[in-house]
Amino acid sequence: MLEIKNLSIHYVGKEFVAKAVENVSLKLNQGELLGIVGESGCGKTTLARSIMGVNPDSAKIASGQIYFNNNKILDADKKINDLDFKWKDIAFIPQSAMNSLDPVYRIIDQMREILVIRGGYTKNKADERSEELFNLVGIDKNRLRDFPHQFSGGMKQRVAIAMALALDPKIVIADEPVTALDVIVQRQILDLFNELKHKLNLSIILVTHDVSVVAYICQKVAVMYAGEIVEMGGVESILQEPYHPYTMGLNNAFPDLHSTNDFLVPINGSPPNLINPPTGCRFKARCPFEINKCNDKPDRYINRDREAICWRTSDQKKLLEESKKLETWEIKE
Ligand SMILES: Nc1ncnc2c1ncn2[C@@H]1O[C@H](COP(=O)(O)OP(=O)(O)OP(=O)(O)O)[C@@H](O)[C@H]1O
Ligand SMILES: [Mg+2]
Protein backbone atom coordinates (compact mmCIF):
# COMPACT_ATOMS: atom_id res chain seq x y z
CA MET A 1 0.00 0.00 0.00
CA LEU A 2 2.80 2.38 0.93
CA GLU A 3 6.34 1.83 -0.19
CA ILE A 4 9.38 3.93 0.64
CA LYS A 5 12.50 3.33 -1.44
CA ASN A 6 15.98 4.53 -0.48
CA LEU A 7 14.74 7.73 1.11
CA SER A 8 17.35 10.16 2.44
CA ILE A 9 16.42 13.47 4.08
CA HIS A 10 19.07 16.03 4.94
CA TYR A 11 18.56 19.23 6.93
CA VAL A 12 20.63 21.82 5.14
CA GLY A 13 21.77 24.82 7.19
CA LYS A 14 24.27 27.56 6.38
CA GLU A 15 27.18 25.68 7.87
CA PHE A 16 25.98 22.14 8.30
CA VAL A 17 24.09 19.27 6.74
CA ALA A 18 22.36 16.94 9.21
CA LYS A 19 21.67 13.57 7.65
CA ALA A 20 18.49 12.84 9.56
CA VAL A 21 17.21 9.97 7.38
CA GLU A 22 19.60 7.78 5.40
CA ASN A 23 18.61 5.32 2.72
CA VAL A 24 15.41 4.15 4.36
CA SER A 25 13.24 1.55 2.61
CA LEU A 26 10.07 0.05 3.99
CA LYS A 27 6.67 -1.29 3.02
CA LEU A 28 3.30 -0.97 4.73
CA ASN A 29 0.55 -3.39 3.72
CA GLN A 30 -3.19 -2.84 4.03
CA GLY A 31 -4.49 -3.38 7.54
CA GLU A 32 -0.99 -3.55 8.96
CA LEU A 33 0.25 -1.79 12.07
CA LEU A 34 3.90 -0.87 11.68
CA GLY A 35 5.93 0.51 14.56
CA ILE A 36 8.93 2.77 14.04
CA VAL A 37 11.00 2.71 17.19
CA GLY A 38 14.27 4.32 18.25
CA GLU A 39 15.89 6.80 20.59
CA SER A 40 15.33 10.53 20.57
CA GLY A 41 16.90 12.25 17.57
CA CYS A 42 17.20 9.16 15.36
CA GLY A 43 14.99 10.59 12.60
CA LYS A 44 11.58 9.07 13.33
CA THR A 45 9.66 12.34 13.05
CA THR A 46 11.61 13.42 9.98
CA LEU A 47 10.75 10.12 8.28
CA ALA A 48 7.07 10.33 9.27
CA ARG A 49 6.79 13.93 8.13
CA SER A 50 8.48 13.19 4.81
CA ILE A 51 5.67 10.77 3.93
CA MET A 52 3.23 13.65 4.42
CA GLY A 53 5.49 16.26 2.81
CA VAL A 54 5.32 18.42 5.93
CA ASN A 55 9.00 18.74 6.81
CA PRO A 56 10.34 22.30 7.06
CA ASP A 57 11.95 23.81 3.94
CA SER A 58 15.43 23.14 5.26
CA ALA A 59 14.75 19.39 4.94
CA LYS A 60 15.93 18.38 1.47
CA ILE A 61 15.00 15.08 -0.11
CA ALA A 62 18.45 13.84 -1.06
CA SER A 63 17.29 10.58 -2.63
CA GLY A 64 14.41 8.17 -2.88
CA GLN A 65 10.81 7.64 -3.88
CA ILE A 66 7.54 7.04 -2.07
CA TYR A 67 4.68 5.09 -3.66
CA PHE A 68 1.05 4.94 -2.54
CA ASN A 69 -0.91 2.12 -4.19
CA ASN A 70 1.82 2.00 -6.85
CA ASN A 71 1.46 5.71 -7.65
CA LYS A 72 4.56 7.74 -7.13
CA ILE A 73 3.75 10.46 -4.60
CA LEU A 74 7.32 11.57 -4.03
CA ASP A 75 10.41 11.40 -6.20
CA ALA A 76 13.64 13.12 -5.25
CA ASP A 77 14.88 13.23 -8.87
CA LYS A 78 11.73 14.27 -10.64
CA LYS A 79 10.64 16.68 -7.88
CA ILE A 80 7.23 15.04 -7.57
CA ASN A 81 5.61 15.86 -4.27
CA ASP A 82 1.91 15.22 -4.65
CA LEU A 83 0.45 16.78 -1.54
CA ASP A 84 -3.21 16.75 -2.61
CA PHE A 85 -3.03 13.04 -3.07
CA LYS A 86 -1.53 12.57 0.36
CA TRP A 87 -3.93 14.64 2.42
CA LYS A 88 -6.90 12.67 1.20
CA ASP A 89 -5.56 9.18 1.79
CA ILE A 90 -2.90 9.55 4.43
CA ALA A 91 -3.54 11.33 7.72
CA PHE A 92 -0.91 12.49 10.15
CA ILE A 93 -1.14 12.91 13.90
CA PRO A 94 1.92 15.04 14.72
CA GLN A 95 4.06 14.65 17.81
CA SER A 96 2.30 16.46 20.71
CA ALA A 97 -0.86 16.78 18.58
CA MET A 98 -2.98 16.95 21.70
CA ASN A 99 -1.18 20.10 22.76
CA SER A 100 -1.58 21.74 19.40
CA LEU A 101 -5.37 21.97 19.51
CA ASP A 102 -6.20 25.66 19.24
CA PRO A 103 -7.09 26.81 22.79
CA VAL A 104 -9.40 29.64 21.73
CA TYR A 105 -11.74 27.65 19.49
CA ARG A 106 -14.33 25.08 20.47
CA ILE A 107 -13.55 21.56 19.21
CA ILE A 108 -16.58 21.63 16.92
CA ASP A 109 -15.12 24.68 15.11
CA GLN A 110 -11.79 22.93 14.66
CA MET A 111 -13.57 19.87 13.28
CA ARG A 112 -15.61 22.03 10.91
CA GLU A 113 -12.45 23.65 9.63
CA ILE A 114 -11.08 20.29 8.51
CA LEU A 115 -14.36 18.93 7.17
CA VAL A 116 -15.63 22.05 5.41
CA ILE A 117 -12.40 23.55 4.11
CA ARG A 118 -10.45 20.43 3.31
CA GLY A 119 -13.24 17.93 2.82
CA GLY A 120 -15.86 20.08 1.09
CA TYR A 121 -18.60 19.22 3.62
CA THR A 122 -21.54 21.57 4.28
CA LYS A 123 -21.74 22.85 7.86
CA ASN A 124 -24.62 20.51 8.74
CA LYS A 125 -22.95 17.48 7.23
CA ALA A 126 -19.72 18.42 8.99
CA ASP A 127 -21.52 18.46 12.35
CA GLU A 128 -23.08 15.07 11.66
CA ARG A 129 -19.69 13.69 10.72
CA SER A 130 -18.12 15.21 13.87
CA GLU A 131 -20.67 13.41 16.03
CA GLU A 132 -19.95 10.17 14.20
CA LEU A 133 -16.20 10.67 14.73
CA PHE A 134 -16.58 11.39 18.43
CA ASN A 135 -18.64 8.24 18.73
CA LEU A 136 -15.88 6.32 16.93
CA VAL A 137 -13.15 7.49 19.31
CA GLY A 138 -15.30 7.05 22.41
CA ILE A 139 -16.16 10.62 23.45
CA ASP A 140 -19.68 11.82 24.17
CA LYS A 141 -20.90 13.97 21.27
CA ASN A 142 -22.15 16.60 23.75
CA ARG A 143 -18.52 17.45 24.40
CA LEU A 144 -18.05 18.74 20.85
CA ARG A 145 -18.85 22.27 21.96
CA ASP A 146 -16.18 22.23 24.67
CA PHE A 147 -12.83 24.00 24.48
CA PRO A 148 -9.60 21.94 24.48
CA HIS A 149 -8.73 22.88 28.08
CA GLN A 150 -11.90 21.13 29.25
CA PHE A 151 -10.49 17.75 28.16
CA SER A 152 -7.99 15.46 29.85
CA GLY A 153 -4.77 14.51 28.02
CA GLY A 154 -6.17 11.15 26.93
CA MET A 155 -9.35 12.78 25.63
CA LYS A 156 -7.35 15.38 23.72
CA GLN A 157 -5.43 12.55 22.10
CA ARG A 158 -8.78 10.97 21.14
CA VAL A 159 -9.83 14.29 19.63
CA ALA A 160 -6.58 14.40 17.64
CA ILE A 161 -7.33 10.89 16.37
CA ALA A 162 -10.90 11.89 15.45
CA MET A 163 -9.53 14.83 13.46
CA ALA A 164 -7.07 12.57 11.65
CA LEU A 165 -9.90 10.20 10.71
CA ALA A 166 -12.21 13.01 9.54
CA LEU A 167 -11.69 12.55 5.81
CA ASP A 168 -11.62 8.75 5.86
CA PRO A 169 -7.91 8.12 5.24
CA LYS A 170 -6.49 4.73 4.27
CA ILE A 171 -3.32 5.25 6.26
CA VAL A 172 -2.82 6.99 9.61
CA ILE A 173 0.66 8.00 10.72
CA ALA A 174 0.81 8.76 14.45
CA ASP A 175 3.97 10.33 15.88
CA GLU A 176 4.42 9.44 19.58
CA PRO A 177 0.65 9.35 20.21
CA VAL A 178 0.89 8.02 23.77
CA THR A 179 4.14 9.52 25.02
CA ALA A 180 2.74 12.13 27.40
CA LEU A 181 0.09 9.85 28.90
CA ASP A 182 0.06 7.62 31.96
CA VAL A 183 0.25 3.87 31.32
CA ILE A 184 -3.45 3.16 31.81
CA VAL A 185 -4.50 5.86 29.37
CA GLN A 186 -1.69 4.74 27.03
CA ARG A 187 -3.24 1.32 26.91
CA GLN A 188 -6.71 2.73 26.22
CA ILE A 189 -5.41 4.81 23.32
CA LEU A 190 -3.45 1.87 21.89
CA ASP A 191 -6.56 -0.30 22.17
CA LEU A 192 -8.46 2.41 20.31
CA PHE A 193 -5.91 2.34 17.47
CA ASN A 194 -6.31 -1.43 17.28
CA GLU A 195 -10.09 -1.22 17.24
CA LEU A 196 -10.06 1.45 14.52
CA LYS A 197 -7.60 -0.56 12.47
CA HIS A 198 -10.05 -3.48 12.37
CA LYS A 199 -13.22 -1.43 12.04
CA LEU A 200 -11.95 0.84 9.26
CA ASN A 201 -9.39 -1.53 7.73
CA LEU A 202 -6.76 1.13 8.34
CA SER A 203 -3.04 0.80 7.90
CA ILE A 204 -1.19 2.52 10.71
CA ILE A 205 2.37 3.69 11.24
CA LEU A 206 3.02 4.29 14.91
CA VAL A 207 6.15 6.17 15.86
CA THR A 208 7.44 5.63 19.38
CA HIS A 209 10.61 5.50 21.47
CA ASP A 210 9.03 2.83 23.67
CA VAL A 211 9.57 -0.85 22.86
CA SER A 212 6.72 -1.83 25.21
CA VAL A 213 4.29 0.11 22.99
CA VAL A 214 5.58 -1.77 19.95
CA ALA A 215 5.28 -5.10 21.77
CA TYR A 216 1.72 -4.33 22.82
CA ILE A 217 0.24 -3.34 19.50
CA CYS A 218 2.43 -3.63 16.39
CA GLN A 219 2.67 -6.46 13.86
CA LYS A 220 5.79 -5.23 12.16
CA VAL A 221 8.56 -3.07 13.49
CA ALA A 222 11.34 -0.94 12.01
CA VAL A 223 14.13 -0.09 14.45
CA MET A 224 15.80 3.25 13.65
CA TYR A 225 19.22 4.32 14.81
CA ALA A 226 20.97 7.53 13.78
CA GLY A 227 18.82 8.00 10.69
CA GLU A 228 18.93 4.43 9.43
CA ILE A 229 16.62 1.45 9.79
CA VAL A 230 19.02 -0.99 11.40
CA GLU A 231 16.54 -3.84 11.76
CA MET A 232 13.06 -4.65 10.52
CA GLY A 233 10.67 -7.57 10.69
CA GLY A 234 7.72 -9.18 12.45
CA VAL A 235 7.30 -7.97 16.00
CA GLU A 236 7.60 -11.38 17.67
CA SER A 237 10.82 -12.24 15.92
CA ILE A 238 12.34 -8.80 16.50
CA LEU A 239 11.59 -8.92 20.21
CA GLN A 240 12.60 -12.51 20.78
CA GLU A 241 15.36 -13.06 18.22
CA PRO A 242 16.86 -9.68 17.41
CA TYR A 243 19.85 -9.67 15.05
CA HIS A 244 21.08 -6.14 15.59
CA PRO A 245 22.90 -5.33 18.84
CA TYR A 246 21.01 -2.03 19.05
CA THR A 247 17.71 -3.93 19.04
CA MET A 248 19.10 -6.27 21.69
CA GLY A 249 20.01 -3.23 23.78
CA LEU A 250 16.62 -1.57 23.28
CA ASN A 251 14.83 -4.77 24.31
CA ASN A 252 16.88 -4.82 27.52
CA ALA A 253 16.17 -1.19 28.24
CA PHE A 254 12.38 -1.55 28.42
CA PRO A 255 10.13 -3.74 30.54
CA ASP A 256 9.13 -6.54 28.22
CA LEU A 257 6.59 -9.33 28.39
CA HIS A 258 8.94 -11.88 26.87
CA SER A 259 12.09 -11.15 28.78
CA THR A 260 13.26 -13.42 31.56
CA ASN A 261 15.53 -10.66 32.90
CA ASP A 262 14.35 -8.96 36.03
CA PHE A 263 16.55 -5.92 35.45
CA LEU A 264 16.63 -3.17 32.86
CA VAL A 265 19.93 -2.32 31.18
CA PRO A 266 20.53 1.09 29.65
CA ILE A 267 22.61 1.46 26.49
CA ASN A 268 25.43 3.73 27.58
CA GLY A 269 26.35 6.81 25.58
CA SER A 270 24.18 8.63 23.09
CA PRO A 271 23.49 8.47 19.35
CA PRO A 272 26.12 10.09 17.10
CA ASN A 273 25.91 13.58 15.74
CA LEU A 274 24.13 13.38 12.39
CA ILE A 275 26.07 16.33 10.98
CA ASN A 276 29.13 14.16 10.77
CA PRO A 277 27.94 10.58 11.31
CA PRO A 278 30.57 7.86 11.72
CA THR A 279 31.50 5.85 8.65
CA GLY A 280 30.52 2.20 8.54
CA CYS A 281 28.14 1.11 11.25
CA ARG A 282 26.63 4.10 13.05
CA PHE A 283 26.11 2.13 16.26
CA LYS A 284 29.67 0.86 16.59
CA ALA A 285 30.82 3.33 19.26
CA ARG A 286 28.17 2.03 21.68
CA CYS A 287 28.13 -1.57 20.52
CA PRO A 288 29.61 -4.17 22.88
CA PHE A 289 30.24 -6.46 19.91
CA GLU A 290 32.21 -4.07 17.70
CA ILE A 291 34.92 -5.58 15.49
CA ASN A 292 37.35 -3.98 13.02
CA LYS A 293 35.06 -4.62 10.09
CA CYS A 294 32.45 -2.28 11.59
CA ASN A 295 34.36 0.68 10.15
CA ASP A 296 32.95 -0.35 6.78
CA LYS A 297 29.29 -0.18 5.87
CA PRO A 298 27.72 -3.50 6.89
CA ASP A 299 25.87 -5.68 4.41
CA ARG A 300 22.13 -5.95 4.74
CA TYR A 301 21.25 -9.34 6.19
CA ILE A 302 17.96 -10.57 4.76
CA ASN A 303 16.13 -13.71 5.82
CA ARG A 304 12.50 -14.00 4.78
CA ASP A 305 10.68 -11.17 6.57
CA ARG A 306 13.81 -10.12 8.48
CA GLU A 307 16.38 -7.48 7.69
CA ALA A 308 19.31 -6.20 9.72
CA ILE A 309 22.38 -4.12 8.92
CA CYS A 310 25.20 -5.61 10.95
CA TRP A 311 28.44 -7.48 10.26
CA ARG A 312 27.82 -9.97 13.03
CA THR A 313 24.48 -11.52 12.12
CA SER A 314 26.09 -14.95 11.75
CA ASP A 315 26.99 -14.84 15.47
CA GLN A 316 23.44 -13.86 16.41
CA LYS A 317 22.74 -16.67 18.89
CA LYS A 318 25.93 -16.09 20.83
CA LEU A 319 25.55 -12.30 20.86
CA LEU A 320 21.93 -12.53 21.97
CA GLU A 321 22.94 -14.59 24.98
CA GLU A 322 25.76 -12.16 25.79
CA SER A 323 23.41 -9.20 25.39
CA LYS A 324 21.26 -10.44 28.25
CA LYS A 325 24.10 -10.00 30.74
CA LEU A 326 24.44 -6.73 32.58
CA GLU A 327 28.23 -6.61 32.31
CA THR A 328 28.09 -6.78 28.51
CA TRP A 329 26.69 -3.26 28.45
CA GLU A 330 29.10 -1.71 30.90
CA ILE A 331 30.87 1.37 29.59
CA LYS A 332 33.22 0.64 26.69
CA GLU A 333 36.82 1.76 26.96
N1 LIG B 1 14.45 21.69 11.52
C1 LIG B 1 15.60 21.04 11.73
N2 LIG B 1 16.80 21.56 11.36
C2 LIG B 1 17.96 20.90 11.54
N3 LIG B 1 18.03 19.67 12.09
C3 LIG B 1 16.90 19.10 12.49
C4 LIG B 1 15.62 19.75 12.34
N4 LIG B 1 14.67 18.92 12.82
C5 LIG B 1 15.32 17.82 13.27
N5 LIG B 1 16.65 17.91 13.06
C6 LIG B 1 17.67 16.92 13.38
O1 LIG B 1 17.35 15.72 12.70
C7 LIG B 1 17.57 14.59 13.54
C8 LIG B 1 16.32 13.77 13.63
O2 LIG B 1 15.30 14.49 14.30
P1 LIG B 1 13.83 13.90 14.48
O3 LIG B 1 12.99 14.95 15.09
O4 LIG B 1 13.38 13.33 13.20
O5 LIG B 1 14.10 12.72 15.54
P2 LIG B 1 13.09 11.83 16.37
O6 LIG B 1 13.58 10.43 16.24
O7 LIG B 1 11.70 12.11 15.99
O8 LIG B 1 13.35 12.31 17.88
P3 LIG B 1 12.33 12.40 19.14
O9 LIG B 1 12.17 11.01 19.66
O10 LIG B 1 13.07 13.28 20.10
O11 LIG B 1 11.06 12.99 18.66
C9 LIG B 1 18.06 15.14 14.86
O12 LIG B 1 19.46 15.01 14.89
C10 LIG B 1 17.65 16.58 14.85
O13 LIG B 1 18.57 17.37 15.58
MG1 LIG C 1 10.08 12.81 17.03
Helical percent range?
25-40%
User: What is the N-to-C order of secondary-structure elements (H for helix, E for strand)?
Assistant: EEEHEEEHEHHHEHEHEEHHEEH
**Major beta sheet, strand line-up:** 7-8-9-3-10-11-13-12
How much strand content do the residues show? 15-25%
- The unreliable regions are none
Explained architecture:
The chain is α/β, with parallel strands linked by helices and 333 residues long. The chain folds into 2 domains: 2-218, Rossmann fold (3-Layer(aba) Sandwich); 244-329, no CATH class. The protein contains 10 helices and 13 strands. A hairpin with a 4-residue loop joins β1 and β2. α3 (107-118) packs across α4 and α4 (123-137) packs across α5. The longest helix is centred in the middle third of the chain and has 18 residues, at 183-200. It is globular.
Question: Which key phrases capture this entry?
Answer:
2 domains; Rossmann fold; alpha/beta; eight-stranded mixed sheet; five-stranded antiparallel sheet; binds magnesium ion; binds adenosine-5'-triphosphate; single chain; 13 strands; 333 residues; globular
